[in-house]
Model the fold of this input.
Amino acid sequence: GAVVSQHPSWVICKSGTSVKIECRSLDFQATTMFWYRQFPKQSLMLMATSNEGSKATYEQGVEKDKFLINHASLTLSTLTVTSAHPEDSSFYICSATEREHSYNEQFFGPGTRLTVL
Amino acid sequence: GQNIDQPTEMTATEGAIVQINCTYQTSGFNGLFWYQQHAGEAPTFLSYNVLDGLEEKGRFSSFLSRSKGYSYLLLKELQMKDSASYLCAVVDSNYQLIWGAGTKLIIKP
Done:
């Protein structure tokens, strides 16, 4: 089956620093990638949707200048949390699909746990 | 507004059967998903329903009634490894995926 990887699996950083999370589709071309955030005991919250070669579409309330998304190729999307603060500590999950709107073929990465001190 | 309701937590016994309900009110409907998520891990796909009726897949079955805005996930012959959160998600008319808060299922021996 299709595999999506994320790197790093976990990261601890100081407040004010920036953190980059990579999401890769290993055996398929991901036309669309999604970035989610999940706080403890809560459901997934979609942050943004990115299509290869175009700007990401951010959900309401998500700061695009703080969460920079780059979908530079069909196999790689990156999320950069700029000037991270403790309230940004969360579980960040990406998912990818080969075709737009094909949610039934949405494959999730293993997630990245971010802790900001 | 758009809303998906599921129970916060359920408890069941190993070997038994449990039904997790999901009701939704969304702007349009283009399918409903059930995902399983173990603590600290990403969700894994369980089922997708777009037509009314029951879809059976091994120990897990999913039911949909579009007229009632209702779905359930049925888990049979429960095993300890089934302890997880179960997320219901609906695709609306804009093809946006709306997530429920999830139901934490606790299995007791």
